[in-house]
Specification:
alpha/beta; single chain; seven-stranded mixed beta sheet
Length: 270
């Protein structure tokens, strides 16, 4: 890669370089806040999952009242839900003021750090929706159970979250290069679903989404551009990254390299 060494470091940002096993919530919020100006245009998979959750919600008998998008970012999911349910407003809840400031005028926003739990609302939420957020929170299993417990009888949770099994190409390359895989550790679907009360799951599916690019760096760069650039899996030097990129497996489709996300979609009725 020669002169591209510094470019590699900059593009991967914290996703490549942050060290230590524990992710601090303030560190996550800082990265996403910095990415707020470009997030809406770069978060293509997030937009697709928001649309899917909104379409699934159309087939559910969700009562009107308090609906909240937990960790709304720039509002993909809240906007999709409002479009699918005309007349229903969705509170956009996020810990980043920069993200909330990017929402259209007139939308309902609430700044709140979800790592501290849910807000104290004056009425119970009829819908809690969240996409690409749970895996960033401390103890995702416990957080998921708290979200479900906050629902009243007949209340709904709509969730999309990347889970264990994501990024097999990255993990293969790291093993082949005898280097650490610095991808964020994702929660295990089996542990998440085991935390739920009996009889509440209405939909439970794992979907695979594969992105393609001309080289592995272009597959990882969007994680930095949308703020998803914090890891709990150590750091690599530029030379170690070169070894990982050289070992990245060729994809069957064109362009020639791929990165696969394993997404868990969950619909719960309390």
């Amino acid at each position: 890669m020669g002169p591209r060494t510094d470019h590699t470091n900059g593009a991967l940002g914290g996703a490549a370089m942050a060290g230590g096993p524990v992710i601090r919530p303030d560190q996550v919020l800082e990265r996403f806040s910095r990415a707020a100006p470009t997030y809406a245009g770069d978060a293509q998979l997030q937009r697709a999952m928001a649309w899917r959750l909104a379409q699934l919600s159309r087939h559910c008998s969700i009562r009107r009242g308090l609906w909240a998008d937990l960790g709304s970012g720039t509002g993909h999911l809240a906007a999709a839900l409002e479009a699918a349910h005309p007349g229903q407003r969705v509170i956009r809840l996020d810990g980043s003021a920069a993200m909330l400031n990017s929402h259209p005028r007139g939308t309902r926003t609430l700044r709140h750090d979800l790592s501290r739990g849910l807000p104290d609302w004056s009425e119970p939420p009829q819908l809690l929706a969240s996409s690409f957020v749970l895996h960033w929170l401390p103890d995702p299993v416990q957080q998921l159970r708290r979200w479900v417990d906050a629902l009243p009888k007949g209340g709904w949770l709509a969730l999309a979250v990347p889970v264990d099994g994501s990024f097999p190409q990255w993990q293969h390359a790291a093993r082949a290069a005898d280097q650490a895989c610095t991808a964020l550790t994702m929660p295990a679907r089996e542990q998440l679903i085991a935390a739920l009360p009996d009889g509440v799951v209405q939909r439970d599916e794992c979907l695979s989404f594969t992105q393609h690019a001309a080289n592995p760096l272009r597959l990882l760069r969007p994680m930095s551009s949308i703020g998803a650039s914090v890891t709990n899996s150590g750091r690599l030097s530029p030379g170690q990254w070169k070894a990982v990129f050289r070992a990245w497996p060729q994809a069957n489709a064109s362009p020639g390299f791929a990165l696969t996300w394993r997404m868990w979609v969950l619909m719960v009725k309390r």
